[in-house]
């Protein structure tokens, strides 16, 4: 299942416009905050699919029947670009556990690349709701590898992927490898460059959030 959050007019479409706009991308704090906002909207939408239990609370004037999540999710991200998006999810799932993955593209001189994964920390995922935050879904290779690695920590009851911009090629690749995944994206693009960057996309989300890095 794939949900394009831009299919319905909302403020989210404004935030997508701003993170794409090269004239606004020099405002690093605004870029990060907009990614957070996209994560918050996705968190709210995902929350509608989760299980709740009835609880009774005491108010100053009596008792009220309320609802609470039956179980808190685990929110994972791929360092470093996914941190603002993950923070947006954590702003809403404020009692969630977190997981972190270090994976990156290792570029070769011929223009090709492999995905290198160097680090993963996660709680037990057995029968937990797993939400993975990564702002750009391009080829899907790093996400599929990250899901493989996370599953070594248990079998989640469900897996949700939250991304700001997704490419159809990456969506297809992830769902071929992991058809159980539900994808929530801020918008969908339909083209990759020869170097596997999304067109029109928005550029490098990690650099725009935190500054340029030395290329590996």
Could you name the ranges where pLDDT drops below 50 across 5 or more consecutive residues? none
The tally of beta strands, per DSSP, is 12
Series of H and E elements = EHHEEEHEEEEHEHEEEH
Number of domains: 1
The pLDDT mean sits at: 92
Description:
By secondary structure, the protein is an alpha/beta fold. It has a single domain (2-210), classed as 3-Layer(aba) Sandwich (Rossmann fold). The protein has helices at residues 11-20, 28-47, 83-92, 141-150, 168-177, 205-210, and strands spanning 2-4, 52-59, 62-69, 74-79, 97-107, 113-121, 129-133, 136-137, 158-167, 181-189, 191-192, 198-199. Strands 1, 4, 5, 6, 7, 8, 9 and 10 form an 8-stranded mixed sheet that branches. A two-stranded antiparallel sheet has the order 2-3. Strands 11-12 form a two-stranded antiparallel ribbon. Helix 1 runs antiparallel to helix 2. The two termini are 34 Å apart. The mean pLDDT is 92.
């Amino acid at each position: 299942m794939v949900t394009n959050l831009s299919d319905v007019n909302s403020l989210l479409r404004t935030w997508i416009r701003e993170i794409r706009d090269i004239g606004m991308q020099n405002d690093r704090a605004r870029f990060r905050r907009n990614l957070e906002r996209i994560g918050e909207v996705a968190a709210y939408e995902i929350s509608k699919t989760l299980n709740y239990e009835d609880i009774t609370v005491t108010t100053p004037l009596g008792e009220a029947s309320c609802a609470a999540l039956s179980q808190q999710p685990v929110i994972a991200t791929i360092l470093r670009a996914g941190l603002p998006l993950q923070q947006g999810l954590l702003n809403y799932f404020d009692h969630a556990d977190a997981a972190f993955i270090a994976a990156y593209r290792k570029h070769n001189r011929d223009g090709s690349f492999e995905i290198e994964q160097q680090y993963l920390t996660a709680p037990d995922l057995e029968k937990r709701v797993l939400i993975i935050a990564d702002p750009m879904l391009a080829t899907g290779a790093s996400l599929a590898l990250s899901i493989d690695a996370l599953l070594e920590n248990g079998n989640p009851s469900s897996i949700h992927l939250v991304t700001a911009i997704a490419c159809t090629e990456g969506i297809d690749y992830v769902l071929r490898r992991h058809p159980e995944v539900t994808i929530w994206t801020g918008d969908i693009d339909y083209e990759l460059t020869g170097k596997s960057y999304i067109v029109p996309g928005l550029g490098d989300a990690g650099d725009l959030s935190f500054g340029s890095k030395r290329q590996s």
